[in-house]
Structure to design on (418 residues):
């Protein structure tokens, strides 16, 4: 059973309201605020699909703290980032391709940003059966690690560059003309090795190429790195400012992105409990891949001498490892257990509820985990808790409870959201 998507009542909108609503929803603060509205509804048993057991939060925090100490005994936890997935049992594969970063090396920074962008956009769920066999390391990788290593090899091959003499770059020309066949081949997609949403992934990269060409530079072909760096004035930028810059520039690239009165909003869902807003009532933004991108840009920007500040201006990521942790640890409970067996699309109301609760409950979880570890917020922001942390604990519980480490809900993956 696929539940119908709610319809937003637009009968009272004015001509300028959709534009204002779009602006207000393209921010991390909107993600956090509206997710907490959903949590408040859950606390009074006001949701249709899920309820929350707040008594389970402390045991969940204890579990996450234990996982963090196991993964990082000295509590020197790095950022949750795409760059962690390049760090494999065979070594840090990104360094074998790009070399070691030199502080202030802007060209290294640009190459690392380009790699981050394409790798993150290819990182939506790989499903339970797909895998990638890396011939160089003679190692098989699955899920996020598999997509990371595969995207790294594609980047190294020059697939995303229109200049054969400069493989380690990404540009609009190469992305715009990218076809399905080379991407499928590079990702080793076959009848016996299916990857959900392969066509949507191609469409997403094509759309990124078109978006980049809308912001031309006269001296060089437009690159993702240029788009990122052009939004930074000076050597620091707040995390939420960087996210808003990227959301404004990339809001139209998402194949399944939500449109409100012809205004593209990207990763946004609908829920009746989000009815407290004057603008965009009933809409719940998430911007998961865009926030994952910002987390994954922290280190490349640092290598270029740019520091991203106020990291907790971002939210925890509303994806199925963090959300799965909260279900498997008993913090989030389905109103009807039959929900576990229903195939659910990313825009369905149960998934919107689950993702919103995940964002809000990660905020509730963070101070409890810090207290367990004896760390202050400045030393252990969400970016480190997710890495330590919730994502790892969510995957471990999934492995213990279900074959193939599947998430607790039956997701219809599209290749561009989770």
């Amino acid at each position: 059973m696929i539940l119908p998507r709610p319809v937003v009542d637009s009968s009272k909108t004015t001509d300028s309201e959709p534009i204002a609503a779009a602006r207000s929803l393209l921010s991390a603060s909107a993600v956090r605020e509206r997710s907490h509205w959903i949590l408040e509804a859950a606390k009074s048993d006001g949701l249709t699909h899920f309820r929350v057991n707040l008594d389970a939060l402390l045991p969940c925090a204890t579990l996450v703290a234990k996982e963090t100490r196991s993964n990082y005994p000295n509590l020197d936890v790095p950022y949750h980032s795409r760059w962690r997935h390049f760090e494999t049992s065979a070594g840090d594969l990104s360094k074998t391709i790009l070399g070691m970063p030199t502080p202030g090396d802007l060209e290294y920074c640009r190459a690392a940003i380009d790699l981050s962008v394409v790798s993150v956009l290819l990182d939506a769920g790989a499903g339970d059966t797909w895998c990638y066999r890396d011939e160089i390391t003679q190692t098989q990788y699955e899920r996020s690690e598999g997509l990371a290593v595969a995207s790294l090899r594609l980047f190294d091959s020059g697939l995303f560059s229109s200049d054969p003499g400069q493989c380690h770059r990404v540009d609009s020309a190469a992305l715009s003309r990218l076809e399905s066949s080379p991407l499928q081949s590079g990702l080793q997609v076959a009848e016996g090795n299916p990857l959900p949403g392969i066509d949507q992934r191609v469409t997403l990269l094509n759309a990124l190429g078109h978006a980049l060409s809308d912001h031309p530079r006269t001296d060089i072909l437009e690159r993702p790195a240029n788009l990122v760096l052009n939004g930074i004035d000076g050597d620091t930028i707040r995390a939420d400012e960087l996210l808003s810059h990227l959301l404004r520039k990339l809001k139209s690239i998402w194949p399944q992105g939500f449109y409100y009165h012809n205004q593209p909003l990207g990763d946004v869902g609908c829920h009746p409990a989000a009815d407290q807003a004057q603008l965009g009532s009933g809409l719940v933004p998430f911007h998961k891949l865009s926030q994952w991108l910002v987390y994954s840009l922290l280190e490349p920007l640092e290598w270029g001498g740019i520091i991203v500040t106020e990291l907790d201006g971002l939210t925890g990521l509303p994806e199925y490892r963090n959300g799965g942790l909260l279900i498997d640890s008993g913090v989030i409970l389905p109103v009807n257990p039959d929900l576990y067996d229903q195939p659910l699309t990313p825009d369905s109301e149960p998934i919107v509820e689950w993702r919103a609760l995940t964002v809000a409950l990660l905020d509730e979880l963070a101070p409890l985990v810090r207290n367990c570890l004896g760390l202050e917020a400045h030393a252990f922001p969400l970016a480190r808790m997710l890495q330590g942390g919730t994502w790892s604990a969510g995957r471990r519980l999934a492995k213990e409870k279900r074959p193939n480490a599947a998430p607790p809900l039956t997701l219809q993956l599209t290749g561009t959201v989770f």
In short: Residues 349-373 form the longest helix (25 residues). The chain has one domain: 17-411. Confidence is low (pLDDT under 50) at residues 1-12.
